[in-house]
Design brief:
Number of strands: 16
Strand order of the largest sheet: 15-14-13-12-8-11-10-9-16
Strand content: 15-25%
Order of helices and strands: EEHEHEHEHEHEHEHHHHHEEEEEEEHHEH
Oligomer: single chain
Number of helices: 14
Helix content: 25-40%
CATH superfamily of the largest domain: NAD(P)-binding Rossmann-like Domain
CATH class of the largest domain: Alpha Beta
Distance between the termini: 29 Å
Radius of gyration: 21 Å
Length: 416
């Protein structure tokens, strides 16, 4: 592991955030900094840090880099993004030298060639599996945003690069926030281990919010055929984002598959685009998932209008109800009540916990790949639901796993 040392700059952790702001609350928790074990530091400088590169320097990439910086154990030393304006704004904010700012489609590879210890991948989802595989090939630790992929082959690629990371003794962590929440963890433990709601018969999973992409629409409408404008407006492009069920709704679908700890057997659904005048992603989905033992979960989402903001999953058992909400109340009501609680700043504290875990794994060498399989399962479940909705017909897990369809945004003309 290559370690560099140097000063960090104070970044605004909330800068550029333009989605799910209603979860942010009034602040964020302080992040603990664990000093590296002396044997793991090259030289004797206790202030040495993990050299971190960011692949993706847009709103989310710039925002989460602030959390890495606040942790204290990282130095942001390189940045890659297709767009020069984004990588330069990021570089100016985090004091990245001009020689370590990389642009174009292959900028991420040039950054890896320039050497970093670890990368945080916040590029459009279409590129996630490619960037993760390249990082592992280069011997670099991977911190990866959800969703990991937009199609089934991409999910298989994530599994393959995670296996290779294990062979190379590299950290590989996927950033889901709810799985770090102690209230979620305890409530689901009680359901799975203690049977506190009895046998689960049915459930509901939902993601209701306003549009997360208001700034992308006017950008795209200037010239909808321009590949660079399409790339800037990736959130409303089906191939680049995976559609809202994969890019956004994966949070509640991950709750669903986490609680049931199984993949669905089949899905039937519908959806559409009723509110937006640009892009080709849906703004609402309705899907019924069938799990083993005939457990039926109704999923619905909408991302338009105002007045309804919640990411929730409820499971109904023979002896009680598990009620969970992202950054909201989590608890059990029934024969065995669990009052639970809420982490109202989960949008920030979730990544902060994952960043701390990632740091501990990189510096200690005690690697844990437990985020991979459940994250791939939830990612695949979104694709199952998406396909069923596009077809307006039943689609099975077995059919999904045979799929070789690869989404292609057809962005010819972009700079390498």
């Amino acid at each position: 592991m290559r370690i560099t040392s140097g000063k960090t700059s104070a970044g605004d952790g909330h800068s550029g955030l333009n989605r799910r702001e209603f979860f942010m609350g009034a602040g964020s928790a302080a992040m603990a900094f664990s000093i590296m074990k002396p044997g793991l530091v090259r030289g004797s400088q206790v202030s040495s840090k993990i050299s971190l590169g960011s692949i993706g320097c847009g709103n989310r990439g710039s925002w989460i880099a602030g959390l890495f910086q606040k942790h204290g154990g990282y130095e942001i030393t390189a940045a890659a993004d297709y767009f020069p304006d984004r990588v330069n704004a990021f570089g100016d904010k985090y004091n990245v030298p001009a020689s370590r700012r990389f642009t174009g489609l292959k900028g991420f590879q040039r950054m890896l060639d320039a050497k970093v210890d670890a990368v945080v991948i916040e590029s459009p989802p279409y590129y996630h599996h490619t960037h993760a595989a390249a990082a592992v090939e280069a011997g670099v630790h991977v911190y990866l945003a959800k969703p990991m992929a937009v199609d089934v082959p991409g999910c298989h690629s994530i599994e393959a690069s995670a296996r290779k990371a294990g062979e190379k003794k590299l950290a590989y962590l996927i950033d889901f926030q709810t799985r770090t929440d102690p209230f979620f963890q305890e409530a689901i433990r009680r359901v799975q281990k203690n049977g506190d709601i009895g046998r689960i018969i049915s459930g509901e999973s939902s993601y209701v919010a306003s549009s997360p992409w208001p700034k992308m629409i006017p950008e795209l409408m200037i010239n909808p055929q321009d590949p660079e404008r399409r790339l800037r407006a990736w959130g409303i492009d089906r191939a680049l984002s995976g559609d809202i069920i994969t890019e956004q709704n994966i949070h509640t679908i991950d709750m669903m598959t986490w609680i049931l700890d199984q993949n669905p057997l089949k899905a039937i659904g519908t959806g559409g685009l009723g509110s937006r005048t640009a892009g080709n992603v849906y703004d609402h989905f309705s899907v019924i998932f069938t799990f083993p033992s005939d457990v039926i979960v109704t999923f619905y989402s909408k991302q338009y209008g105002e007045g309804a903001n919640d990411i929730a999953c409820q499971m109904y058992g023979t002896e009680g109800t598990l009620d969970t909400h992202y950054a909201g109340d989590v608890g059990i009501k029934g024969k065995s009540n669990y009052l639970g609680g809420r982490d109202s700043t989960l949008y920030t504290t979730g990544p902060a916990r994952n960043i701390a875990t990632f740091y501990d794994q990189v510096t200690s060498g005690k690697l844990d790949y437990s985020t991979i399989a459940p994250s791939v399962r939830s990612n695949l479940t979104t694709i199952l639901g998406r396909t069923a909705a596009y077809k307006c017909a039943e689609f099975t897990w077995d059919e999904l796993m045979k799929s070789e369809e690869q989404l292609d945004p057809h962005l010819t003309g972009l700079k390498e």
